[in-house]
Design brief:
Elements (H helix, E strand, L loop, with lengths): L14 H12 L9 H11 L5 E6 L3 E2 L2 E2 L3 E10 L5 E4 L14 E5 L1 H5 L2 E2 L21 E2 L2 H5 L6 E10 L2 E9 L6 E7 L6 H18 L7 E7 L3 H9 L7 E7 L9 E4 L7 H13 L3 E4 L8 H4 L8 E5 L21 H19 L3 H15 L8 E4 L23 H14 L1 E5 H8 L3 H13 L3 E3 L3
Helix pairs in contact: 1-5, 1-9, 5-9, 7-9, 11-13
The structure holds zinc ion (ZN).
The site of zinc ion has 4 residues, from loops.
């Protein structure tokens, strides 16, 4: 068997094309955080790598959360008074507010408008919106479609089901010579969108396939999970294993044509993975950007919650939220391309090759430094502890979260709360939090007060 540093992709058409073709194959499926769309997706991935698929029943307690009811959908449409279908789920699965409860009735335009989401700034695009934790129904349509609505009766139909079922995730563990693990994670919950995040799913499938063919020192664990609730579920069921995780990356947004890669550092910012990714990007002589950890984004939010603080960063091209097409129908098969996918794949592979070459001493000394480096002297020596340090607490249940998910700006208002929760591990004072978050001290203090009231935070009295 070959060694990992001998991996050379022997593929005449280029691995970027393979990665793109898998995206094409997965694109039409209507995925969500649970349901048959996730199963179908994982089964397709299983044709490439020996994936283990787990089902976790609805109602299972996972830290502060519960596995939700399982959602499935067959069809949905809006018909005008002439009986013409003016919005059709079969044309785009983004047309339905993801996790909509079933509905079939005739309603007025005024009533319909309360359940419609559009993007006025891009009148041809359909927005992607979710309502996982509040039972609601809705349609996402182009703003042009919206402007054509007349004052008449509409028939709305969403043929969905929300039942006691399970949450599905996929995992593949590739045992190396040593127990130390690299965790590579992506999410499989977005319906028809490509950069966010079929690009990450497909890239990791091919990376797992290549590593599976060769000898390696480190062990590798690949997760294909629904975002947030899947990471929380996995961490909750695998708490004993996480001590082995020494390095990791969340793979997302790796297929757009931007010539620039973006690396979001781990929470501590000084782990081996941070150094190696920086090396690989520097050596590439291509443009790149490195950003410090921030407590919003993808599943690094859970992996890097203060109770775990895992050395996991995220390597992307254009960061989610920074491209206009993000969470819309314009993040489609034209938005990603095989050349960029191949370029991202090469970076991931180089990172793996460099990780394989680390010497044990370096690893150990790095571990010891971790705790010390985060302590920064500050003027305001008041420290807090997050009372729910493992993963994020479920903010929606406590009335602290905008209930319709997927919107770009809603997360902005939540930033002080996310920063306070993530940094309140007894080592960051108020002024540390202000410095690291770049937010106003008053906003941080307000967030602290809210979190104390909700019993999620306590002053550190040590
Ligand atoms: Zn997303």
């Amino acid at each position: 068997m070959e060694k990992i540093n001998q991996i050379e992709i022997k593929n005449s058409k280029g691995i970027g094309k393979d990665i793109y073709e898998l995206i094409q194959d997965l694109y039409p499926i209507c995925r969500s955080i649970t349901g048959n769309g996730v199963r179908e997706t994982l089964n397709k991935i299983k044709q490439h790598i020996p994936l283990n698929i787990s089902e976790v029943p609805t109602g299972t307690k996972v830290f502060d959360w519960e596995v939700p009811k399982e959602w499935n959908i067959n069809d949905a449409y809006i018909k005008n008074s002439k009986g013409e279908k003016i919005v059709d789920f079969k044309k785009s699965n983004l047309h339905v507010l993801n996790y909509s409860i079933p509905i079939h009735k005739k309603i007025s335009l005024t009533e319909l408008k309360k359940h419609i989401f559009t993007l006025p700034e891009h009148p041809d695009w359909i927005p992607y919106r979710t309502s996982y934790y509040e039972e609601n129904w809705g349609f996402c349509i182009t703003h042009n479609q919206f402007q054509n609505l007349r004052d008449e009766q509409y028939e709305v139909c969403i043929e969905s089901s929300l039942i006691q079922g399970s949450l599905t995730y996929g995992e593949i563990f590739l045992k190396g010579k040593i127990k130390d693990e690299v965790l590579l994670s992506c999410y499989v919950c977005h319906p028809s969108m490509c950069n966010d995040n079929l690009s990450g799913v497909s890239l990791l499938t091919y990376l797992a396939r290549e590593i599976n063919k060769v000898n390696h020192n480190l062990s590798y664990r690949f997760l294909f999970i629904p975002e947030t609730i899947g990471a929380i579920t996995w961490l909750s069921k695998n708490e004993k294993k996480i001590n082995n995780i020494k390095h990791g990356l969340v793979a997302t947004c790796v297929g757009d044509s931007s010539g620039k890669m973006t690396y979001k550092k781990t929470r501590n910012g000084n782990n081996i993975i941070d150094k190696i990714v920086t090396n690989v990007l520097t050596e590439s002589k291509e443009p790149f950007e490195i950003v410090d950890f921030f407590p919003t984004g993808s599943d690094e939010r859970q992996f890097c919650s203060p109770g775990f603080n895992l050395p996991i960063g995220s390597l992307m091209r254009t960061i989610y939220d920074k491209f206009e097409e993000y969470h819309t129908s314009a993040d489609n098969l034209n938005y990603v391309n095989s050349k960029s996918l191949e370029n991202s794949f090469e970076k991931y592979l180089k990172i793996i090759k460099q990780l394989e070459e680390i010497k044990v001493e370096e690893k150990e000394s790095n571990q010891k430094n971790v705790k010390n480096k985060i302590i920064i002297k500050s003027d305001e020596e008041i420290f807090y502890n997050n009372l729910n340090p493992k993963c994020e607490p479920q903010l929606g249940r406590r009335g602290l979260y905008n209930m319709v998910g997927g919107q770009k700006n809603s997360i902005q208002n939540m930033l002080p709360i996310f920063w306070v929760l993530n940094l309140s591990d007894g080592t960051n004072s108020i002024s540390d939090i202000v410095k690291k978050s770049n937010l106003e001290i008053q906003d941080i203090k307000n967030a602290i007060n809210i979190l104390i009231k909700k019993n999620l935070l306590k002053m550190d009295t040590k």
